[in-house]
């Protein structure tokens, strides 16, 4: 079974596990991890499937990094999260990146609830999210509290990004 796994999947596992540990422990996803992973993803996909693979890898990089860049510009993600999503996208291509983002969102929501409960801020977090959703649905309203504000230590979202990708590759079917 292991011989049928593409080399890029091993890259996702390695990068994902290291990012999980460093983000959870230090709240950092290091450039020494993400930048070589981006280059490896582009190079491996070029080597394995030629120019179409390089294009697929580049689109995955843009999709993964682009989605999290938008969230980063809104103050909801850090630079390491953006580069991690871009690296995973470069390794697995655009179609699996869509699945990876989908599962990262689901796992991130579950993790956020557990994180808030563990830090005693679940009710405050749910109220803040509810106000933001209400304000988004009502034209002209602005939320009283920004989503980026928190009473607790920031959640290490790189964990959800990593495990969303691993879930997309090994456990659940692709969403696209």
TrEMBL record:
Segments passing through the bilayer: 6-25, 32-51, 57-79, 100-118
InterPro entries for this protein: Prepilin_IV_endopep_pep (IPR000045), Prepilin_peptidase/N-MTase (IPR050882)
UniProtKB keywords: Membrane, Transmembrane, Transmembrane helix
Gene3D superfamilies on file: 1.20.120.1220
GO cellular component: plasma membrane
Keyword Transmembrane: yes
Keyword S-adenosyl-L-methionine: no
Residues covered by the Prepilin type IV endopeptidase peptidase domain: 13-113
Similarity annotation: Belongs to the peptidase A24 family.
Protein name (database record): Prepilin peptidase
Taxonomic source organism: bacterium (Candidatus Blackallbacteria) CG17_big_fil_post_rev_8_21_14_2_50_48_46
């Amino acid at each position: 079974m292991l011989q049928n796994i593409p080399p890029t999947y091993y890259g996702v596992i390695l990068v994902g596990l290291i990012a999980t540990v460093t983000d959870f422990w230090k709240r950092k996803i290091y450039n020494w991890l993400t930048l070589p992973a981006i280059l490896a993803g582009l190079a491996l996909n070029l080597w394995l499937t030629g120019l179409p693979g390089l294009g697929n890898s580049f689109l995955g990089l843009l999709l993964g990094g682009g989605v999290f860049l938008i969230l980063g510009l809104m103050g909801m993600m850090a630079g390491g999260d953006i580069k991690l999503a871009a690296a995973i996208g470069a390794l697995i291509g655009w179609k699996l990146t869509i699945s990876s983002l989908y599962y990262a969102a689901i796992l991130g929501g579950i993790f956020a609830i557990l994180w808030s409960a563990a830090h005693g801020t679940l009710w405050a977090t749910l109220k803040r999210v509810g106000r933001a959703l209400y304000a988004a649905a009502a034209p002209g309203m602005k939320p009283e509290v920004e989503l980026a504000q928190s009473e607790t230590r920031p959640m290490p979202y790189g964990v959800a990004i990593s495990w969303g990708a691993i879930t997309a590759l090994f456990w659940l079917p692709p969403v696209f």
